[in-house]
Design brief:
Oligomer: single chain
Order of helices and strands: HEHEEHEEHEHHE
InterPro entries: Starch_synth_cat_dom
EC number: 2.4.1.21
Protein name: starch synthase
CATH superfamily: Glycogen Phosphorylase B
Largest sheet: 4 strands, parallel
Number of domains: 1
CATH class: Alpha Beta
Keywords: Glycosyltransferase, Transferase
Strand content: 15-25%
Catalytic activity: [(1->4)-alpha-D-glucosyl](n) + ADP-alpha-D-glucose = [(1->4)-alpha-D-glucosyl](n+1) + ADP + H(+)
CATH topology: Rossmann fold
Radius of gyration: 16 Å
């Protein structure tokens, strides 16, 4: 198992469990790209005190999906039924695919990118999943509107 995968899993588990032990109110869990993809799954599957918190997953670059061998699955504390139902992508483990399916909402860096990634040309193999998930996919233009927020 690549050390990178174990490190990402450890960070995701730690962040979700730390949040679950904190007594403050959590409005939403917002994860960005494949590096944080497991946090969405863990929040939904493992941490009972944060289960039910809405999860938003933002795609900055669909080309990097966190794809690994299926044999990595047990080391990341992903149940085999979850592997087959949400993470499996042509026999491999795809962390981004899992986060897309597990999340309540999906955002991208622009409305144009949200449209493009649903096509075969720009979908990097996830275009079918993204078309299926279209009702929860929105593009939000990157950046700050300095007229509405200018500290």
């Amino acid at each position: 198992v690549p050390l990178r995968d174990l490190r990402q899993a450890a960070i995701a588990i730690a962040s979700v469990l730390a949040r679950s032990r904190n007594t403050g109110r959590v409005a939403v869990l917002h994860a960005h790209d494949w590096h944080a993809a497991l946090a969405v799954y863990y929040a939904k599957a493992l941490a009972s005190s944060v289960r039910g918190i809405p999860c938003v997953y933002t795609i900055h670059n669909l080309a990097f999906q966190g794809q690994e061998r299926a044999s990595t699955t047990p080391y990341l504390d992903i149940a085999w039924d979850a592997f087959h139902s949400i993470f499996e992508d042509h026999g491999t483990l795809n962390l981004m695919r899992g986060a897309l399916i597990a999340s309540d909402r999906i955002t991208t860096v622009s409305p144009t990118y949200a449209h493009e990634i649903r096509t075969a040309r720009y979908g990097h193999g996830l275009d079918g999943v993204l078309r299926w998930l279209s009702p929860k996919l929105r593009g939000i233009t990157n950046g700050v509107d300095v007229h509405s927020w200018n500290p």
